[in-house]
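FORM 12-B: Structure-to-Sequence Request
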């Protein structure tokens, strides 16, 4: 059986270099404890909770001049709705991530994916169909894949495809657009294409870059699998949960601030309507299992514009950007999110022109 470092080398030289460096360090300090994760995620989580408690106690007085009582209630409803919608899938992703870390040997991924990174990307994109979750689940799972030696390009392709082409999302799209199977097909084709394009784009421009914070193994040799699973689950939940709360609060705030009347003025222009609905998907941060029903209700917009809404939402929204920043670093999110949005919008226009 190959070692984690050998598996990483088979998949990505940059990962192999990191793994080799880690092995050298271990040989030099055989008795050292594994490096502890920075307390940033716990601090963010605690500060967020304090802020939210303060808003709950004093929100009406603080925002009385900015929002009506109805606006405050809308904000609270949106915040709770986004959080409650996403939390079960975040828990699912955390459980899957912890299970991958504790029970799946790194050599498995070297055998499951093609050794050439360019070929591993489409395989990873297609495998996203097996995860019935949303974007909150895909972030910790893709991080666990990277930490187990999977090339980042393939892990990122999985991150983008899993919340967009899984059976639950496609089924909900079919229900939201009855008698219009072309909408389901267009969504699947566009989302799959975007995930592969971004994976290959990473291979071409981001490979070996310093702005992707690679997840590291946080456990010493000899730690039991049960302890690894438990500690990984608690760490990932606190780490991702704090950023999820921040993203949900931002989505609720933007939902209240942006006037809905603005949408009526842009529906008649195809390019502008695609951009507006793409931005709206980023700001509203609706779970991928529910966004098709929102898109179906925007009847003043064309099917192509609504396709952009459904393609952009699961792969780049405010809560997902926050989760990516917390998991892979803010430098990564600052580059990856705009590139994802641009590719998703252009792909939606092309597929919409072709199929819709």
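FORM 12-B RESPONSE
SEQUENCE OUT:
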């Amino acid at each position: 059986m190959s070692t984690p470092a050998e598996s990483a080398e088979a998949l990505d030289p940059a990962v192999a270099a990191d793994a080799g460096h880690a092995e050298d360090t271990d040989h030099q300090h055989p008795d050292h404890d594994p490096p502890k994760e920075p307390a940033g995620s716990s601090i963010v989580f605690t500060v967020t909770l304090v802020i939210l408690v303060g808003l709950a106690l004093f929100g009406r007085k603080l925002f009385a001049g900015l929002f009506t009582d109805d606006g405050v209630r809308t904000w609270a409803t949106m915040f709770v709705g986004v959080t409650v919608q996403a939390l079960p899938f975040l828990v699912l992703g955390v459980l899957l991530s912890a299970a991958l870390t504790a029970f799946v040997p790194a050599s498995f991924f070297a055998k499951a994916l093609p050794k050439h990174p360019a070929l591993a990307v489409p395989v990873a994109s297609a495998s996203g169909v097996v995860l019935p979750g949303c974007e909150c689940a895909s972030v910790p799972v893709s991080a666990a894949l990277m930490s187990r030696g999977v090339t980042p390009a393939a892990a990122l392709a999985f991150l983008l495809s899993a919340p967009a082409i899984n059976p639950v999302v496609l089924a909900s799209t079919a229900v939201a657009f009855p008698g219009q199977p072309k909408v389901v097909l267009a969504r699947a084709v566009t989302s799959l294409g975007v995930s592969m394009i971004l994976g290959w784009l990473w291979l071409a421009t981001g490979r070996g870059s310093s702005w992707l914070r690679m997840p590291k193994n946080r456990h010493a040799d000899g730690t039991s699998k049960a302890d690894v699973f438990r500690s990984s689950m608690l760490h990932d939940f606190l780490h991702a949960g704090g950023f999820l709360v921040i993203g949900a609060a931002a989505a609720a705030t933007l939902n209240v601030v942006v006037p809905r009347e603005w949408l009526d003025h842009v529906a008649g222009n195809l390019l502008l309507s695609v951009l507006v609905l793409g931005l709206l998907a980023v700001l509203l941060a609706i779970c991928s299992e529910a966004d098709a029903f929102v898109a179906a209700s925007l009847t003043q917009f064309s099917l192509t514009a609504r396709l952009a809404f459904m393609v952009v939402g699961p792969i780049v929204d405010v809560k997902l950007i926050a989760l990516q920043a917390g998991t892979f670093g803010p430098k990564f999110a600052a580059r990856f999110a705009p590139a994802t949005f641009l590719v998703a919008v252009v792909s939606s226009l092309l597929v919409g022109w072709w199929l819709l």
